Amino acid sequence: MTITGTQLSYFFTCHRKLWLFSNGINMESNSDLVYEGKLIHETSYAQRTERFKEVDLGPVKIDYYDTRDKVIHEVKKSDRLEDTHVWQVKYYIWLMEQAGIDGVTGLLEYPRLRQTQEVLLSERDREELKSILTETEAIATADKCPERIELPICRKCSYYDFCYSGEEGG
Question: What pTM was computed for the model?
Fold first, then answer.
C-alpha cells in the first residue's frame, strides 16, 4: 500500500479518521474548514503557478516545488497541528529522495500568520518515518475501525457527525 499525504496527516491527528478515509468514507467535501483551507492555498500565492512546478509522486501531489532551489512549499491555514505539517513535508522530501532527487528541503508557509518554517529530513527522521508508514498502513488496512477519541479538535473535524452520530458522549 502506498500512503498518501492525507493519510500520513490523519495518522498524527486521529487513527479513526485515518481508517475511515482509507476505507472510502470521505467527509472532507462537506467541511467549511477544509474549503477555507483550499481557498487560502489557492489565493495566498497566486504567482507561484508561474514559477514553481507541480510534482506528481504517485500517492502524493506536491503543488509547489521550486526545481531550481529544490524546495517544497507547503501552504497551511494555521499552525495548530504543526507537528503533523512537519511530518507531512518530511514525507514529501523522503518521496523525492526515493525518486532519485537529493538535497530537497521543505518550507511550511502560514500566510495568515505571516510565518514560515524550514523543514529538513535527518537520518533519524528517515528511520522514524519507516515506522510511521508501517503503523499508518496497519491502521488503514485493519479489519476494525479504531475507537473514537474525544479531544477538543473533534468538534471542528469533518468526521464529527459521523463519529458522534448515535453514540453516547457527544
Answer: 0.82
